[in-house]
Amino acid sequence: MDLQRPALLVLVRHAESARNQAKKGSVYFADDAARQIVRGVPDHLIELTEDGHKQAAQTGQGIRERFGTFDYVYTSGYARTVQTAEGILSAYGEDERARMRCKNDLFIRERDPGFAYDMTTAEAEAAFPWLNEYWQTFGGFMARPPGGESLADVTGRVHTFLDALFQDRAGQKVMVVTHGGTLRCFRFLLEGWSYSQAQRWPEGQSPANCGVTTYRCDGDGGPLRLEDYNQVYWTVGSAADGI
Predict the structure, then answer these.
(1) Tens digits of per-residue pLDDT, 124-143?
(2) Cα torsion at 95, 100, 101, 107 (round to 10°)?
(3) Residue 2: which H helix or E strand, with range?
(4) Across 44-192, where does the E strand assignment appear?
(5) pLDDT above 80 for 172
(6) Alpha helices in 128-204 (DSSP H)
(7) pTM metric for this prediction
């Protein structure tokens, strides 16, 4: 028998983080000055910027107006997703918040960025001169950063998360606050993307900070259907790429 599905699944990328601001959409830091504010801070402790907190609060107002309350709210447990969820939930009244269960789940964390996490572009190119050719050969879904995870690796744990979600949250309204790379893995699984589709984001679909992607169940226990993607409710800051 087919697994049941949540009635509503809302995926939210975290709001602007300190690393988003420092890296300005680049894979690595431009120079030593750019990385100083976050150098040595592990990925799971990276926090939101002031604009990021505002983005989360404004997104919460839009989400509450559109979807009402949720049965469960999941985050990756990383500081930036927890803070984003807190900002979103600040739009709800005390009684509403009391009805929503909040849980952290390590399966929906961002990909492990590997050894080049704190490197500048010049340092990464010197340390891994073969990396660009390797990346071009295997593509952005299969290639692994040195010491890190590929998006294909991340997809394995997102699959585990979805299996549990389908069994435990059938018919319920669920919000997931996660990361940009992890969101691509969700879409790969939920929409049946091919490997070639998953190599890069479709044109115009790279998720903004606090971008909201929505799936609804098509009938009783039927598949989750994409309703819309990357809906933005905030008016402050910039739609930064990266982790």
Answers:
(1) 999 999 999 999 999 999 99
(2) -150
(3) none
(4) 72-75, 101-104, 173-178
(5) yes
(6) 131-142, 151-168, 180-191, 195-198
(7) 0.94
